[in-house]
Specification:
By secondary structure, the chain is α+β, with helices and mostly antiparallel strands. It has helices spanning about 1-20, 25-40; strands at about 45-50, 60-65, 70-75, 80-90, 90-95, 95-100, 105-115, 115-125, 130-135, 140, 145-150, 155-160, 165. About 20% of the residues lie in helices and about 50% in strands. Strands 1, 2, 3, 4, 5, 6, 7, 8, 9, 10, 11, 12 and 13 form a 13-stranded antiparallel beta sheet that branches. Strand 12 (about 155-160) and strand 13 form a beta hairpin.
């Protein structure tokens, strides 16, 4: 019985490595990950803070680690508002990336799978209304794409099939 459980766990680990082999690597995250492994505990779990130049308390970036791997990257404007939240897996953007405009308002959000745009994305006007809604599959526009006025009226609809505009 223990042998079967071990075998199942080993195959899960191989699957994760196979998935990472297909990932589109973010070179900045990979460099940060390698730097961390050279100078610190290779199995570190926690958060590393970077501060704006000349400041001891204004956080510029947070890099979150789990068992030595970067799992989330955050950056901030000098006023402390969030700028980017980027979930990471296999040194690639994986999950919903969120970019903020000034004053903490979301500018856009887009779903990624191992470094490729895959899923729904929205961009927003300053007033918080949706400006555009897009769908991606494997880094290519796929499905209906909508553009809206600042009042929320639909002003454009385009249809894509795996990157090719069909309407």
């Amino acid at each position: 019985m223990h042998f079967l459980v071990l075998l199942a766990c080993l195959s899960c680990n191989v699957d994760n490595k196979d998935k990472c082999a297909d990932a589109v690597i973010d070179e900045k995250i990979e460099a940060l990950s390698e730097y961390r492994r050279q100078f610190y505990d290779k199995k570190y779990t926690g958060t590393v803070r970077s501060y704006f130049e000349g400041s001891d308390d204004q956080i510029a970036k947070l890099v979150h680690y789990k068992s030595g791997d970067i799992v989330k990257y955050e950056s901030f404007y000098e006023n402390g508002d969030p700028k980017i939240i980027k979930p990471i897996k296999c040194n690639s953007t994986h999950g919903t990336l969120v970019y903020f405009m000034d004053k903490g308002k979301v500018g856009y959000e887009l779903e990624y799978v191992l470094g490729k745009m895959h899923g729904k994305g929205n961009s927003y006007y300053e007033n918080g209304r949706v400006q555009k809604t897009v769908q991606y599959e494997n880094d290519k526009k796929n499905g209906a794409q909508y553009e809206f006025s600042e009042q929320g009226d639909t002003i454009l609809i385009e249809i894509f099939d795996h990157g090719k505009k069909i309407k």
